[in-house]
């Protein structure tokens, strides 16, 4: 089945496509998943205006009732779990088991926020003066523009859409063109759950039109908050644009996530973690492992076991039980291949039976599926990474893991922090003091002990620092600070003007 994807503004399909592109199944490029009508900037602006028009009515619906809509969405996603996971696998090539996990993450997010509809707590605060009471309230920010990436085409959007809607905001959502069909499917589930037309508007557009539309919408005053998941480069451009309008976007950007292996670590456990976060989703998670830093005395043994694990891993058709499938798209593979230039100076490539694309002519042992039909690349482990290397600080967004060595714990911390990113980091150790010290000194927003750099749960704060983001956090109660603003109220029932500071009661 081929999906037809168009923008939907206030419930009506937008016919003003500026071009039509196709999204392909990266495991079988002959399989066209969707034909996508890409909108121009004017559609984005119209969507923001529609969202503005719908906002007051949506905010007027009591939060517990909005919570019921989120509850229905959770049940609908659950009922359609396999179908949505199959579509994710088909459109971006994520192994089916991981796609199921991704859909589960939406369900978890809904389960968390349905209850938040009955909380959204404010506070009562004592006043300096008698007969006066102070309060705080969470109020919706207004119109939110959410721009998301193809690698987590359903779960990560839900981290924005669900709390934004629950908090009484209206939304313009621009999914990635490469996952347009998944975007459309999720939007349809949200409308079916009872989110009114105009409250969620879907814009199918490329990055350029989106940026231009966002610029116009911000200058017209019809966007109040931007949420963006994607590259650091685009995140910076969005941040600069938002800054002009005195807005702070919610950003979830790249990572060069380190995994530290202390000499006292359980090495098999560390290998398992490195395999999952280095090569799962073909290294295309923002939480993917960048470099493993291993204490010198166990470096050779770790590398031996890690290499053996990668060599024997099954790669290929994402509907089978594989470690990873194809990259999301040919463009991702081309970009990844450019990074292979950075590998050359190291001359040490482990874990692979080839370099670059897996094809019939450049095969891999333990490959399942039809190599020539898809966008598959060989896994790589590059040893000898130091803080001087480009690979130390470059996110490759593919199945490539660097390995470096350290002697002291202090060196490990320095290496884990020094690349500029600060999304997630992991340490493998059996020494509790190392674990806590690492957490204290690590700049990453998310730290794992004896677990991989990936695998965030839906109710913990998700986000990074440095090049990984501006400190904004998604998920759990923390995201409420992105999608609501605090409003205070003071209520004086003294029957006379009481002046703060000047009329404070003295003892
Ligand atoms: C992302 O890659 O943008 O923790 C998000 C994880 C996933 C989410 C990754 N649950 O790896």
TrEMBL record:
- Does the record carry Oxidoreductase as a key word? yes
Extract one GO molecular function annotation from the record. Answer: aldehyde dehydrogenase (NAD+) activity
* Cited Pfam families: Aldedh
The UniProt keywords, alphabetically, are: NAD, Oxidoreductase
**InterPro entries per record:** Ald_DH/histidinol_DH, Ald_DH_C, Ald_DH_CS_GLU, Ald_DH_N, Aldehyde_DH_dom, ALDH7A1-like
The record's listing under Gene3D superfamilies reads:
Aldehyde Dehydrogenase, Chain A, domain 1, Aldehyde Dehydrogenase, Chain A, domain 2
| Segments forming domain Aldehyde dehydrogenase | 19-488
SUPFAM superfamilies cross-referenced by the UniProt entry: ALDH-like
Stated EC number for the protein is 1.2.1.3
- Report the active site residues: 252
This protein's record includes keyword Oxidoreductase: yes
The annotated subunit structure for this chain is:
Homotetramer.
Q: What family does this belong to?
A: Belongs to the aldehyde dehydrogenase family.
Q: What name goes with this protein?
A: aldehyde dehydrogenase (NAD(+))
User: What is the originating organism of this protein?
Assistant: Kutzneria buriramensis
């Amino acid at each position: 089945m081929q999906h037809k994807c168009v923008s939907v503004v206030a419930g009506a399909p937008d016919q003003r496509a500026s071009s039509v592109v196709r999204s392909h199944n990266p495991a079988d490029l002959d399989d066209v998943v969707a034909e996508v009508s890409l909108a121009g900037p004017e559609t984005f602006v119209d969507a923001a205006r529609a969202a503005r028009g719908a906002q007051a009515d949506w905010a007027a619906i009591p939060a517990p009732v909005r919570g019921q809509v989120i509850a229905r969405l959770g049940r609908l996603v659950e009922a359609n779990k396999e179908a949505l996971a199959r579509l994710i696998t088909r459109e971006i090539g994520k192994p089916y088991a991981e796609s199921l996990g991704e859909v589960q993450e939406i369900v978890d997010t809904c389960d968390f926020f349905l209850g938040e509809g009955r909380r959204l707590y404010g506070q009562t605060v004592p006043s300096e003066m008698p007969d006066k009471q102070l309060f705080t309230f969470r109020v919706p920010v207004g119109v939110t523009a959410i721009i998301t990436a193809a690698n987590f085409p359903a779960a990560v959007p839900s981290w924005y859409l669900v709390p934004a809607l629950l908090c009484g905001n209206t939304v313009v959502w621009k999914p990635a063109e490469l996952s347009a069909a998944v975007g459309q499917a999720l939007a349809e589930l949200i409308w079916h759950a009872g989110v009114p037309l105009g409250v969620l508007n879907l814009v199918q557009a490329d990055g350029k039109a989106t940026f231009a539309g966002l610029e116009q919408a911000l200058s017209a005053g019809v966007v109040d908050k931007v949420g963006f998941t994607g590259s650091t480069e685009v995140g910076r451009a969005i941040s600069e644009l938002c800054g002009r309008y005195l807005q702070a976007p919610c950003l979830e950007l790249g990572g060069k996530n380190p995994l530290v292996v202390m000499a006292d670590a359980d090495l098999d456990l560390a290998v398992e973690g490195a395999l999952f976060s280095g090569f799962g989703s073909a290294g295309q998670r923002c939480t993917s492992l960048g470099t493993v830093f291993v204490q010198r005395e166990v470096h050779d043994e770790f590398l031996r076991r890690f290499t053996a694990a990668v060599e024997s891993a099954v790669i290929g058709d994402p509907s089978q039980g594989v470690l990873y499938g194809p990259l999301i798209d040919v463009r991702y593979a081309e970009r990844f291949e450019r990074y292979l230039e950075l590998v050359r100076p190291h001359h040490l490539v482990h874990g692979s039976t080839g370099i670059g694309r897996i094809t019939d002519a450049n095969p891999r042992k333990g490959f399942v599926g039809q190599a020539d039909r898809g966008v598959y690349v060989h896994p790589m482990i590059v040893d000898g990474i130091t803080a001087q290397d480009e690979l130390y600080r470059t996110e490759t967004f593919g199945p490539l893991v660097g390995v470096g060595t350290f002697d002291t714990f202090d060196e490990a911390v320095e290496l884990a922090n020094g690349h500029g990113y600060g999304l997630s980091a992991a340490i493998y150790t059996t020494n509790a003091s190392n674990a806590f010290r690492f957490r204290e000194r690590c700049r990453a927003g998310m730290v794992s002990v004896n677990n991989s750099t990936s695998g965030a749960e839906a109710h913990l704060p998700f986000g990074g620092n440095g090049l990984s983001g501006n400190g904004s956090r998604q998920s759990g109660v923390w995201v409420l600070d992105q999608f609501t603003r605090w409003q205070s109220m003071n209520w004086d029932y003294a029957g006379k003007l009481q002046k703060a500071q000047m009329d404070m009661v003295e003892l």
